[in-house]
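Could someone model protoporphyrin IX containing FE with this protein?
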Amino acid sequence: MITRQTDTAPGQNVPGPPGIPLLGSALDLRRDLLATFEEAHRRYGDVVRFSAGPPGLRIVMYAVFSPEGARHVLTGTGQRYTKGNLFYRETAAMLGDGLLTSEGECWQRQKRFIQPLFTRRRVAGYVEVMAEETAALLDRWHTAAQHGATVDAAGDMMHLTLAVIGRVLFGEDLNTVTPALREALPVVSAHALRRSQSPLRFPASWPTPANRRAGRAQRQLYDIVKGIIDRRRATNTASEDLLSLLLRARDPDALGADTLDEAEVRDQALVFLLAGHETTATALTFALHLLGRHPDVQQRVRVEAEQVLGSGDQEPTAERITALAYTTQVVKEAMRLYPPAYVIGRQIPEGDVIDGYHLPPGADVLVSPWVTHRHPRVWEQPQRFDPDRFTPKQEKQRHSYAYLPFGGGPRACIGQYFSMLEATLATASIVRAFGLHAPPGPVPLITGITLRPAGQVPLTLVPQSPHPGLH
Ligand code: HEM
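Reply:
Sure, complex below.
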């Protein structure tokens, strides 16, 4: 690899926007992070240096846009690259040190406990919950469609995915805690994000209004999970939900002696809630919106859904959902254009060389699925919605890190199979039941912890046949 280091300090020779005096690129990044990244990629190439904030409080970060660079960063995690960046530190402060944020020995130990709960066989067992919650959504939408109403895909998909992961985690206990979860989760995640982006942060222990509000929401979440754990222990029922499995889990390497303590179980449960619902909701929302704009693609999905799922007589199983090959391609293409994890952050304690550029010790590095999924070297007409990019043949021909909605390397998403099953089943079931129409024009976006629609995403529904139901 050529080293472009000259006699300047590491990082200084990496090209990047100068931004405005004093603030650097802070305003551009805040106004439109995605467009700022795309523009920087066009102008400066595959490794770009951004600086934001006033001198003294300046945040410097390096964005890496090529598939090769993304692979270098993500497969190096756990060795040269860490999750020591601000975002992950703030998330851990709010939600504890679960699988998403922990590192080193701690992460390895957790992974040994949790991996067996996400095998294909285990996840296949959650399809029943996914199917029941999808059926409940279709019921609500049939009522709405009778009155000629337009539904909000964004809100309804959030509702669906929280119900699914909540029931998988907490079983029937979910019903009692749903309102509190819906209230508290966004408060803690928004607080973590705001703190990680702000150059000036008061210590978390200071009683500022924001810290107090987030502290209250955090206690609320802790109490919810503790309440459910206590009830489980008191009744001693052998539930098969994820929380019970976590409580019973044994470290396979410790000959069955080691278990997760209560705080560890709670932290894992909160991470699954956080990582597992907004992401899948975004994927589904955009899949439905894009189908609403592309009737030809929608019709192909409908034909496939009718063939594979029948008209309600075929019980959906993981095997059947996997047979929904074209619908799976649609979900993948929706996540190419709108990757819920639009950036993935790391830190390099000792510095590194990427694409010939020396990055200094302690540098914050961002991989950007949003930009890599539009990289003109890989994707022809990247703005076009075209699910045929994901035929097995096309997928095999591409760089394995050209498409990375679930990250990669040792820290890749543990819920990938779970969310693909959920999103594919819901998409096929919805399109089998309704014709979808979406208004033209772009959907305004928010770059929060995940990429989300900024407001409602309207869909007009036309019932396709008498309500078939799923069973
Ligand atoms: C469309 C849906 C989803 C997307 C786009 C997504 C995306 C991601 C990405 C990009 C990462 C890697 C983060 C990094 O490297 O820093 C990740 C990790 C993770 N995801 Fe997901 N995720 C989704 C669904 C889920 C679900 C349903 C669950 C749980 C049920 C889940 C749990 C996790 C966990 C625990 C990790 C950390 C894994 C580790 O570090 O070992 N995710 N996810």
